[in-house]
Amino acid sequence: MSCEINRRDLIKLGAGAALAAPAAAFATTGRSEFFTPGEFATLDELTEILIPADSHSPGARAAKVAAYIDRSVAQAFENKERDDWRSGLKLVEELSHKMNHRAFMESTPGERVAIVAVMAKNETHPKTPEEVFFGKLKHATVWAYYTSEIGIHQEMEYKGNVMLQQFVGYELK
Amino acid sequence: MLQVDLKKQYDAVIVGSGAAGGMAAYVLSSHGMQVLLLEAGKKLDINMELRSMEWPYEHPRRGDMPPDCRALAGREYAIRQPPYAVGSPYKHVYSYVEAGKGSDYAKDIVVDEKDNPYTGTEYAWVRARCLGGKTNIWGRLALRLSDYDFKAASRDGYGEDWPISYADIEPYYDKVDLTLGVSGHKENLPYLPDSIFQRSIRLNPAEVKLRRSLQKMDRVLTPYRAGVTTDGLKNNKYRSRCYGRGACDRRVGGCDIHAAFDSPTGLIFPALDTGNLAIRTNATVYEVTIDKDTGKASGVSFIDTDTGKTYTAKGKSVLLAASTLESARLQLLSKSRLYPNGIGNSSGLVGHYFCEHLMGPGVYGLDKELVGKPRTLDDGRPGGFYLARFRNLKERNPKFLRGYGFEGGSGVGMFPENAYSTPGFGSAYKKTVRDYAGAFIGMGGFGEVLPRYDNYVDIDPHVKDRWGVPVLRFHIKFGDNEKNMAEDMAASAREMFEAAGFEVLSVSRRILTPGFSIHELGTSRMGADPKKSVVNEFQQSHDVKNLLVVDGSTHVSASCQNPTWTIMALCWRSCDHLADEMKRGNV
Lengths: 173, 587
Fold this sequence. Notes:
The complex is a heterodimer.
Chain A: H1 2-12, H2 16-19, H3 22-29, H4 37-50, H5 65-75, H6 79-100, H7 109-119, H8 129-146, H9 149-155
Chain B: E1 9-10, E2 12-15, H1 19-30, E3 35-38, H2 46-50, E4 69-71, H3 76-79, E5 92-94, E6 119-120, H4 147-150, H5 152-156, H6 166-180, H7 205-216, E7 221-223, H8 263-272, E8 277-280, E9 283-290, E10 297-304, E11 310-315, E12 318-320, H9 324-333, E13 357-358, E14 362-366, E15 385-387, E16 404-410, H10 418-421, H11 427-436, E17 440-448, E18 456-464, E19 470-475, H12 480-499, E20 503-508, E21 547-549, H13 564-583
Parallel strand pairs in B: 1-11, 2-3, 2-12, 3-8, 4-5, 6-19, 12-21
Antiparallel strand pairs in B: 7-15, 9-10, 10-11, 13-17, 14-17, 14-20, 15-16, 16-17, 18-19
């Protein structure tokens, strides 16, 4: 009973939309929760450069990796998380201007990959702020991609999470 | 189901509902005794908590906890002192067990460290407060101990022998196997006795390669001996057989078809069916009450964690099964004029001779022959392998006493962990992740930590938990034996991987903070001499005949084999004895 009332109240207040999954909301409205449209476009492109569509499977863009990251960052408990992402994307822009004298999204696809390559140079021992941001970007992209439907089923062709009659493997004599 | 009636004197009041409490309830209610089981945590709709077949992308945060919750990172335990959650801006803080951002599936199972602090030396204390306790999320490795453990002191001169031998406990191991189900492969090892096994887990190619290579070194790698029913149980209507869905290790584990043993479906629900068991959850016991005339335990006092009100439950016997550390806390809290050091503590040993398993050293490698091979299903089984102890069996190691074993596995799960460590990006990166994902093999050691008087817990004089109960203070440090053993674990792990032809990618040498194994043992050890032990071989307090401690507290030494099966076998034996003694009027 009380559940009914709460639900109706929510809808009346126009909060019903908040109950729907924001990722789905993004797909229809094209609006991000935290990043500006410009930042979002850059992030989306960066994730696709990291994990691109190829002949084997779709990439990060199709897997909506940027939308997942956007939502996680919007919901993050600590403001530092939002600051780090915002300043990281700014570093990408600065790097783009330094290397190509134009914004990241105005650069050619080849130029964009070259920018990411510079950021990825010291992946195991990052030193510059750009290199540190690459680690953050890659970690988030990897998690979001390989936990997505595309990542699990198409890219990794994962065969588990099903009922088996018998374990796969060698039977010992 | 019996209704809880606090006016009634039960035959037995049991504190805690995990492996030991569940077993005590099962055995005593089967003997026709009227039993009250008190659990500090909630009764959860566990299947709705675990949702183990849910895909990550079906969860709004891919399985992560809400943003205002977090799990402690493993390294935090080593760089800070408890209480670890003090000062955290997060609303809820949980133990490391849900690594990463913390698992949404376990947040109701493990305790909130903000409500349940502890103090003293660094210690990673993982607690589950809910019906079934830690058995809801345990690692499932179900091993027996042997006389290499029970009589270890006679073999190497350190510490005390257990007051029992393998022959005493063997029939009870058999009963546990048959009642709960255990999967495994017979190896005929005197130091790792076989159980009555159901269908074994199968090994994958890299694991078989390692097994064969180890045979030349006279060492044994056997399929994970899982406390999982792989053939089903005719005597239990609450549990399904294993269907290899492979969700066992995903986001803290737990089995929502209950093929893996857990105390509620394995023991407590069958006990309820006897009509002799009553359960009250949200009941945090803070004291064992005594009858001043007889000196016997008369029941327990508890707090209703929802209302904060206190109550007393009455019993002809009281069984502590709150976990090694909580049972010690409870004994130490139960001070009276008769028992000024805490109930059952005339020896002064409650809380002492704490022991457990050290963790940390291990190896991670690559089987190059598997790179680029077609995708296989490597995690459709409840475990990988167990590599049995090999040190201090025939020869005597000059640097340390006792032994260690390894748990490990090969292959890829749902998430390719190598995606984090593979350098680069782009299509080539994707392919590398894919090609290598199934080719890795790793194992981590579990080593016996020696029981020492100096490793102990006591009650903190100042700090209290959310309900006003004084908390535990840790005084626990690993010593030279542990350090030397850890060095040998890392070295032997590398040696075995190299001998098998694997490329060794990393060797971990660092010992993790005490507590990481979640195998805490020994704070009320058993023995024949009341001056040197807290309980007798039937887990009966030397001081208070109708008080039993039936959990891991009573283990005299840790062995290196995982303790759950031994906890249950010992508890069954003690409860049989208690029922006999009560029938004879001796308790």
